[in-house]
Design a protein that fits this description.
Elements: H1 11-28, H2 33-53, H3 65-73, H4 88-119, H5 125-133, H6 137-147, H7 151-174, H8 182-188, E1 202-208, E2 211-216, E3 222-224, E4 240-243, E5 252-257, E6 263-268, H9 278-284, H10 286-294
Parallel strand pairs: 1-6
Antiparallel strand pairs: 1-2, 2-3, 4-5, 5-6
Helix pairs in contact: 1-2, 2-4, 2-7, 3-8, 4-7, 5-7, 6-7
The protein binds zinc ion (ZN) (2 copies).
One zinc ion binds next to loops.
């Protein structure tokens, strides 16, 4: 079950790919125009921030390969429990820009409130960025509730703002690992449903001619899984079902699990999408989310790992 280190992509290629997909989305679903316009702004800002991290301009995380190999072999994602310095001064302006774009693009009063809290210096942005990188959704929810802010929206903007740094860590730690090295082998042997770097669940599965490639919702890691057991709880019995909500597009399906009520979308794909364009495929397949929700399923909450 190989881990896929995707080839590096230039900014121009990323933007051209994104433009083509947005164009196709709008042609098929003109009603998505406002959502596409907002996503263009958000993804554009994410790409700008990602560019600033390219070429090793962030402090590289130095985790010995032997240590990482042991960790992965125990089923623990690479970043779990690691004290990581985030480039707060680089990320914070992007966080404000993303919040503003969301507030102006239909995020409503709840997003305005988040933006005001940020601009008014009422939030410890550094601490929130750390919680986001650590995928501590529960702690963030508690914080948001206490601060009277919308949890889902706050998580959404934080997730977008930290994702370029998470992707840079992915590149730095797993990008150039030879398959024959012990770490390469440990990555290839990763059979879990959660991301080997950050522990997030996949946003979706790219079906590449029968090869099922999971794509991390956060750092955009790509890893392949065989078998059809539930990614979230391991259920492989009869409580599982596969829906094809649009029979005219049989390559788009959603797997539901009756045991944990989780679901995951699968889409026929010609090639893996580079960071951060998995979000485009996610938007494009909202009808699959809807179908899953109508069957009482939801995206599972992020898995928590014991801290050392
Ligand atoms: Zn990840
Ligand atoms: Zn399940």
């Amino acid at each position: 079950m190989p881990y896929a280190a995707l080839p590096p992509v230039t900014r121009a290629t990323r933007l051209a790919l994104a433009d083509a997909r947005w164009g196709a989305m709008l042609a098929a679903r003109p009603d998505l125009a406002p959502a596409v316009a907002l996503q263009r702004t958000l993804i554009g800002r994410v790409i700008d921030l990602a560019d600033s991290f390219e070429g090793g301009r962030i402090q590289r995380l130095s985790l010995p390969q032997r240590y990482l190999t042991t960790k992965l072999r125990s089923g623990i994602p690479a970043l779990t429990g690691e004290p990581i310095q985030l480039p707060v001064s680089a990320i914070a302006p992007a966080l404000v820009d993303l919040s503003r774009a969301l507030a102006e693009g239909g995020g409503g009063a709840a997003t305005q409130e988040i933006l005001r809290a940020m601009e008014g210096g009422r939030l410890d942005v550094g601490a929130l960025l750390v919680l986001t990188l650590r995928r501590e959704q529960g702690a963030l929810r508690a914080f948001a509730t206490k601060a009277g802010l919308g949890h889902d929206l706050l998580w959404l903007v934080l997730d977008l703002a930290v994702s370029p740094f998470a992707h840079a860590l992915l590149d730095g730690l797993f990008g150039a690992v030879p398959a024959e090295a012990p770490l390469g082998a440990a990555l290839d042997e990763w059979t879990h449903g959660y991301c080997p770097l950050c522990g997030s669940w996949p946003t979706l599965i790219e079906d590449l001619n029968g090869l099922r490639r999971l794509r991390c919702s956060f750092c955009a890691a790509a890893w392949d899984v065989a078998g059809r057991a539930c990614l979230f709880c391991g259920e492989s019995g009869e409580t599982r079902a596969t829906l094809t909500p649009d029979p005219s597009r049989p390559g788009r399906t959603v797997d539901l699990c009756g045991t944990c009520r989780g679901y995951v979308k699968t889409m026929d794909s010609e090639a893996s999408l580079p960071f951060p364009l998995v979000a485009l495929a996610d938007l494009e397949s909202m009808d699959l989310d809807l179908a899953a929700m109508q069957h009482g399923c939801a995206r599972p909450t992020i898995k928590q790992f014991p801290r050392r």
